[in-house]
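Sample pair:
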Amino acid sequence: MTKRDTLARRDTVADPSEAVDQLSPVGTGAIWRLPVTVCRINQFLGERTAGALLERAIAAAGDASKPSMIRDREVVPDVRRSRSCQDFAAPELLAAIDEVLEAVEHTLGVSCRYTEPHYSLNLHNDGDFYRPHQDTSAEFAPRRLLTFVYYLHRTPRPFDGGELRVFDAAMPLHTGTTGKWAERTWRDWAPEHDSIVFFRPTAWHEVRPVSCPSKQRGDSRFAVNGWLCSPDPAHRGNDASR
């Protein structure tokens, strides 16, 4: 049977959608895999400033740290296991972010003018992790415009794992097609001391499990996690700044 005969037979199929499926050169299960843009800067603060910030983080990791929450109000150990310090102050980090913000905005296609920072110190020790999630829970979705994660740890690195895994965006080529989570593709970013990453809060990401043989707090994977957020609608009358 010739190719022309085959096409002629397809034209007689009773179900038009079936005919489209057979004639289409792209399968109905086809899915785009689109890499998510991540901006990473190494040696962000410099050895002296990063060292001082690490010592401050280790000191804050004692009684001031509490189990990390999801959606800022629930402790769910099966989803997130780590500890956080909500009152940790890192003005030198914010100043450095402000210096590179214009380039980051351009690269990620986002405007952070008139935003305000919200951040906390998070530490992952032996067995800790954070399952795949987005930084766009219902109450924060309209406000969080940019995610940043700044990494700190003792050197040589006293733990293994803890990579930031950023999943590629998956978009179906045909309406109704949904990809399976297990088929997602990704890129891992190592939590290098004095490095920072920026990405859009809509990106799916996770913290891979950490192995810390000493189990000492000071040997943890430290990170300052935060967002640049649009002003709270409840305080629109106030002037906001970066």
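The domain at 28-230 is CATH 2.60.120.620 (Jelly Rolls).
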